[in-house]
Amino acid sequence: MSKLRSSESVKVVVRCRPMDEKEVSGGYERIVRIDVKLGQILVKNPKGSPSELPKTFTFDAVYDHNSKQVELYDETFRPLVESVLLGFNGTIFAYGQTGTGKTYTMEGIRSDPEKRGVIPNSFEHIFTHISRSQNQQYLVRASYLEIYQEEIKDLLAKDQTKRLELKERPDTGVYVKDLSSFVTKNVKEIEHVMNVGNQNRSVGATNMNEHSSRSHAIFVITVECSEVGLDGENHIRVGKLNLVDLAGSERQAKTGAQGDRLKEATKINLSLSALGNVISALVDGKSTHIPYRDSKLTRLLQDSLGGNAKTVMVANIGPASYNCEETLTTLRYANRAKNIKNKPRVNEDPKDALLREFQEEIARLKAQLEKRGVGKRKKKNRRRQGGEGEEDMEEDDGEDEERIKNEPEYWRAQQEKLEREKRAILDDHSLVAEEKQKLLREKEKKMGDVRREREASEALATKIKAMESKLLVGGKNIVDHTNEQQKVLEQRRQEIADQKRREREMQQQMETQDEETLELKETFSSLQQEVDVKTKKLKKLFAKLQAVKAEIDDLQAEHIKERQQLEQTQNELTRELKLKHLVIENFIPLEEKNKIINRAYFDEEEDQWKTQPITRIEGNQQMMKRPVSAIGYKRPLSSYAKMALISRSDPRYRFCVVNRVQAENILLLELDMPSRTTRDYEGPAIAPKVQAALEAALQDEDDLQVDASTFDPLRSGSLRKSKSSRPKTGKKMGPSFIGSGTQLYPQSRGLVPK
Ligand code: ADP
Ligand code: MG
Q1: Tell me: the pLDDT tens digits for 457-481?
Q2: Angle between helices 187-204 and 118-132 in degrees, nearest 10
Q3: Among 243, 181, 183, 192, CA closest to 218
């Protein structure tokens, strides 16, 4: 069930950090001027003439170097987190060049309450909200992940080397498979989760500054709330808050990058450029295809851009002149993002709500506990009716529930009763010793049963308690006086923030109206007045025209630069490709290449090329069977070699070819058998001189033994008909070998089928 609401734009705010010490001591000019009241940012061209007008950008809100963290929170982030508590999905992006305050805005300095960023402030907000709630049950959990070079890492996982995959489900959309999430009961716990993640983030990186400027960190808080609706049914709303500290938006230097470094450079900002492309496609009004699938980041945050979430983007900029270009790029980027329209929707009763699972599990365990108590009691009752004549401490049926509630006392009483009975038996002198022993054994056994029963019930009760403790309910401190005061204070702050926002909106409206009314003042008392008014109008319009022209020039220059960079990357990639081609053409046999090409396919999910596993069944790709002689060996062995393996302890055979192949596993390839055998080929001609030399060399090898067991006398006419595969051992075949020497050897390359 979902409640559809009208569309709303992505909210974009800009924050400019103060000049840092280096910038002040370096005497850099401040080129950014901020009109907080009007929500405008003016950027002066440091190289331009004094008469050149600054570039102006208007946003939902702007924050100058004096801005306080809490100000940003109350005005911009609080309403969004409030929506998450109502069951909307919300996303906060921090975008901007490295060193402009993204992490400061998102995390801030946690030890200083004044300087805490939006993430810790949202923790406080969420848990305070829960503590004040009434008749609602909450479950809060947190996940923390990082995207670096298009790989997703779970910052809370034990194994930090594992990379996660994105999956998609029709009902819930894109999600990270196997991402760990931790249920947190209070601010301290969720802070701990964040600290663990941050630690893991810095441990993996050799240079944290560089790493954080190149990776995206996403902290996810899921708030589930269950409440009995008007229909008397229990309803669950789930809100997910994504807190995203993006990689630095500055252009990565690509010059001279090669091989792995080039791959790295092209991948580092893939998510960011994809984000830019998605934003452009969403706002240009013509695109039918939004390239969400181009990167992990855009896929994961698809809902936040043109989807059903509420989104706030904070663009961070630096004030100094040397940042001018990047500052303008960031502002243009942010300006475009303003026009993205989302359709926020409450997630009501989703199938995968963890809260519902918890509630159901608790109910199940409770029923189990109840059954235990009741079952046992009934059994006892039956026994009593059976007339065992035992004294029974059991309560009546009506007191059943009461007993379950007072479980510990009940068990203690049971235990005491049995102890008492045991003592009575011991003291009873009328019983015969044997009978006494029997009764005592019986009592001992019963006591053991009672103990086990109690332990099982206690384990169940602890489990229920642990699960219940994770479900948070408010309404406890609602009468607390300080809490009340705090609430009023927060309300006031909220009102002030709202008031400020309204003022800004009105000012912005007045500005635009001013321009329109200028054109309406058409009645003039004198010609001079008309000239004056029209000159003024002309001047204003001319200035506007100049500004627009300058903007066009700037954009063109930027496009050219971007294009040049893309071309450069393309050239480098082409060069790399050519090199690979060269290697393939010259060093990889054609048929091997074709085989690999036939098996290669592109895995969209993992964004990389893979090869299909070899199967023997598939049509024309069928592999030949492994030759019988090769069973159990890495390559086929001749009978001679097998015999040599078994029977020769002679050390020289330890190093014979056959043995070495076995020992070293040189080849792992399956063998492709030639379609013809060596018998079908003519031997090569050997020059008489070479032949003589060979003869002489082989003279010394008289001690060499030949396995003649498989020698076929019918074929002894020539060596190529012998099963022995070694020509040099053929010396023992005497004249026939020498005599037919000219035809004995296969021609070079003769094995390749013609
Ligand atoms: P980024 O995450 O964008 O690379 P950081 O958040 O690390 O940038 O900020 C760089 C430096 O500037 C930090 O030392 C931070 O404390 C400081 N800084 C950023 N924004 C502000 C601000 N609004 N007020 C005071 N200091 C700031
Ligand atoms: Mg940072």
Answers
A1: 888 888 888 888 888 877 654 445 5
A2: 160
A3: 243
Please identify, by atom number, the ligand 1 atom nearest to the C-alpha of residue 94: 3
DSSP H/E element including 334: helix 324-337
The winner for highest mean pLDDT among 407-411, 429-433, 446-450 is 446-450
- The CA distance from 315 to 334, in Å, is 6
Task: List the one residue out of 637, 608, 604 whose CA is nearest residue 293.
Answer: 604
With a Cβ cut-off of 6 Å, ligand 1 is lined by: 17-18, 96, 98-104, 213, 248, 316
Cα-to-centroid distance, 59 and ligand 1 (Å): 21
Q: How far apart are the first and last CA of the chain?
A: 70
Contacts of 583 (CB under 8 A, 6+ apart): none
68, 113 contact by CB (below 8 A): no
- Look at residues 284, 282, 286 and name the one whose alpha carbon lies nearest to residue 306: 282
Q: How many residues does the chain have?
A: 754
The ligand 1 atom at the shortest distance from the C-alpha of residue 67 is 23
Tell me the CA–centroid distance for residue 390 and ligand 1, in Å: 79
SS3 418: helix
DSSP one-letter code for 98:
T
In 3-state terms, what secondary structure has residue 41?
A: strand
For residue 160, the CA-to-ligand 1 centroid distance in Å is: 28
399-438: b or e for each residue (b if 16 or more CB lie within 10 Å)? ebeebbeebeebbeebeebbeebbeebeeeeeeeeeeeee
661: its two tokens: 């192949």
d(CA 365, CA 464): 7
For residues 543-556, average pLDDT: 87
- DSSP β-ladder status, 600-603 and 166-169: unpaired
